[in-house]
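Attaching the record inline, Q. Sequence:
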Amino acid sequence: MAGIAAAICYGTNPLGALKLYATGMQTNSVLFYRFGLAWAIIAVVMLFRKERLKVTWPEFRVLTGLGLLFIVSSLTLYLSFHYMAAGVASTILFTYPVMTALVMTFFFHERISFSTLLSLLLSCAGVILLYWSDNGDTLSITGVLLVLASALSYALYIILMDRGNLQMSSIKINFYVLLYCALGMLVYSLVAGLPLTLPHGSVGWFYVGWLALVPGIFALVLMVYAAKYVGSTATAILGALEPLTAVLIGLFVFGEPFTVFLAVGIVLILAAVVLVALAKQKKQTEKNNAANVVAGTTPAFDSMRLADKTM
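Structure, as predicted:
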């Protein structure tokens, strides 16, 4: 239930973003207030937990990298909503697990497997189908490139999080990442000459709060609980509900079209993600079994690895 709720929460990103766009807010303002409010909430939580803010120089470098990557991923995704249907953008974004596997293969020398190659082919076919509509129209190439950049930067974020060896809670990690994001959007606004505008009335603040809490903090906490109790593979597969939620919001709230090509493209991309998740689980199981054989112990299941960096 936590995994399902986390995926649905994250899939509501377009709801808040498009509602705020409709009030006249620009992307820089939407993201600045979203990150700023989420950071303020995390800061209050840290205050009550009495967590120390001090970090080491190596931790500072990793946190800086995480912050910059998350800024790029969020900014490019939210900008893509101006060029294509939010449901389509969210579905293309879901290629990030495949990109993660490819980066690990080509830059960290992990052995490429048949399942990785098949996942790549399936995801490429899915993106192509999403690019072409049933009547022959095509998506904005700018929008597609923006979403792919968002997926790639998020894949790099996941890899850096995994390899950065940060010995701190998820709350503390996100305190710094969200701080970087808020400051980054402030710098982006100044450099681009874009003014920061306040949300319009109670409705505007409601959707800013929605973006900060629901697809932000709630999704994070629920995802960690899901990984703790059912494992990362099941959580990744349940994450397929993220783009499905975004598509349904686009369809029923914003009247976005739902075509045969869109349906088939979604199925292909989700199939690619499931293959990557299952292949990762198999590799980790084999690695654990081999280590246990060497140590002369029986296999043990460590579902707490991701949870160690949480609450």
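The radius of gyration is 20 Å. Residues 2-309 form one domain.

More tomorrow.
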